[in-house]
Amino acid sequence: MKIISTLATATAGLALLAGAAAAQTTTLRIQTQQSPESPAGQLAAEWVENVEAMSGGDIDIEMFYSSAVVKSAESFDAAANGILDCDMTNGSYQTGKNPAFQFVADVMGGYDTPLQFLAWIKYGGGREQINALYNANGMEFVGAWLGGQESLNSTRPIAGIEDLENFKFRSPPGMESEIFAALGAKPVVMDFTEIFTALETGIIDGADASTLANNVGLGIYDIATHTTYPGFHSMSSDHLACSTATWEAMPEAHREILRVSMDSLALGLMTRVIVDNGEALSALPEKGVTLHDWSAEDRATFRKAATDTWESWAEKTPEARAIVDSHIGFLERIGLRD
Length: 338
Description:
Blueprint: H1 2-22, E1 26-31, H2 39-54, E2 59-64, H3 75-80, E3 86-87, H4 102-105, H5 114-123, H6 126-135, E4 139-145, E5 152-154, E6 168-171, H7 175-182, E7 186-189, H8 195-201, E8 206-208, H9 212-218, E9 226-228, E10 238-243, H10 244-249, H11 252-283, E11 290-292, H12 296-314, H13 318-333
Parallel strand pairs: 1-2, 1-3, 6-7, 6-8, 9-11
Antiparallel strand pairs: 3-10, 4-10, 5-8, 5-9
Helix pairs in contact: 2-11, 5-6, 6-13, 7-12, 9-11, 12-13
């Protein structure tokens, strides 16, 4: 009996040692452009805590906020080259590498809700299309998170397509400027920090800045008393992307935790934006701000102009062509395009 007991004890000890040896830890250094005080930054911090809890502490994340390690546009390459492990910024920073990145970051005029964009990733072949692009650049796409449509702001009414004629507004460079110019607007590319002075002095009539609630926080409606809501033109999506080497070194269980946790983060941001925008919505009319909800016809006209511009961008590279075709096919599939 004593011999059997000793053997049993030894066997149990060996099993514990084997389990300990088999346990694998993953340490990730991730950068985001979001500040820790912003709603998105707060949600990113919760995401870190959730991932570490779900993994039982086997995934350890060090998050760098406000692009503390490298500039936002350099975060993707920093991860690919091993300075970081993962990038949690925005694919639009990489359009200089390939125009296809635009259609991962912001499908201008394409989808009405973030759920539709996420449905493309999950059920429309989007994940495979994105990874064909990312893998070629040494990165693995893990997931996306986006709050919803942004609101266009103006010092004069912007109730529909006709009001875009000669509408001078701050626009980011690239595809957005081309779309609005095709509709008669006069986009002005300027740094975000110049918006307030340009609005106050009349250099511009309006600005593309952010969501309704964020615009309130920025103080834009102290100057611009007209805004679109719900938005129609832009819905920017941040990503989590890890270097191929980092991703392949992880056990599959850790990869799945990251994938699933990104779905949770996306839901968290969508619902947070609904609440924040709702609170802003109820307060703005009392401050003299007029909200403009574009008609289905005007939205369709904008979408047509946007997708026409997509076509010119799609011709730039085979990867852009493939992702644009994927989006168009999915839009048709879910009834957003004739």
